[in-house]
Amino acid sequence: MEVYEEDYESLQEALRRLRRDSNAKAVFLIDKNGQQIAAAGDIENFDSTSLASLTAGNVAATDGLAKLIGEREFSVLFHEGQRDHIHISIVARRAILLVIFDERSSLGLVRLRVKRASAEMDRIFEAMERRGERGLAGAEPSPFSEITDEDIDSLFSE
Fold first, then answer.
1. Which pTM does this prediction carry?
2. What pLDDT shows up at residue 16?
3. What's the CA dihedral at 107, 31, 129, 113 to 10 degrees?
């Protein structure tokens, strides 16, 4: 899926609003492969690359646990620390929303604000998907579409 500038700005604004309304330290939007899509808040205080990768791994492991006990998924995860807490949720079945907060907020407030922000991000992702489908319908065929596996094999067998 391609993220156009206007989509990125819409996602970024949704994250800024979520961070502000939930009184969180930082908010990250991560794809399921562990790549950061967007972030808001005090993100410079975190190793965002490691955070994104470990969060995606956490979600994948938890999905495995869910399947072991007969659940489809656990759509919300919460980790409570002494100072900081992490709320993780799935957005639009394709992205991970990570909210880091402390005693200035509460789990109830974060959950409430995440629910509203998730609905907004669902709409943004749906618009991105529709735009991508329209783009693919009118797109020129790839110059590589006529290359077969046999062509590739013969190229490297010499």
1. 0.80
2. 97
3. 10
Positive/negative CA dihedral, 10, 15, 16, 20: positive
**Which tokens go with 116?**
């509203």
Q: Quick one: which of 73, 102, 72 has its CA closest to 87? A: 102
| Helix, strand, coil % in the chain, rounded to nearest 5 | 50, 20, 30
Beta bridge partners of 40: 27
In angstroms, how far apart are the furthest CA atoms of the chain? 65
CATH number reported for the structural domain that contains residue 95 in this entry: 3.30.450.30
Structure-block tokens of residue 133: 């489908």
> Domain range holding 79?
5-138
Question: Considering the domain boundaries, does residue 69 fall inside one?
Answer: yes
pLDDT digits (tens, 9 = 90+) for 135-150: 655 545 555 556 676 7
- Cα–Cα distances (Å) from 106 to 51, 96, 100, 110, in that order, read 21, 20, 11, 6
User: What CA–CA distance (Å, rounded) separates 158 from 42?
Assistant: 54
Q: Does the residue 158 lie in any domain?
A: no
Number of domains in the chain: 1
76 belongs to a structural domain: yes
Q: What is the DSSP pairing of strand 26-31 with strand 36-41?
A: antiparallel
Evaluate whether residue 152 is within a structural domain.
no
Tokens read off for 42? 């005090």
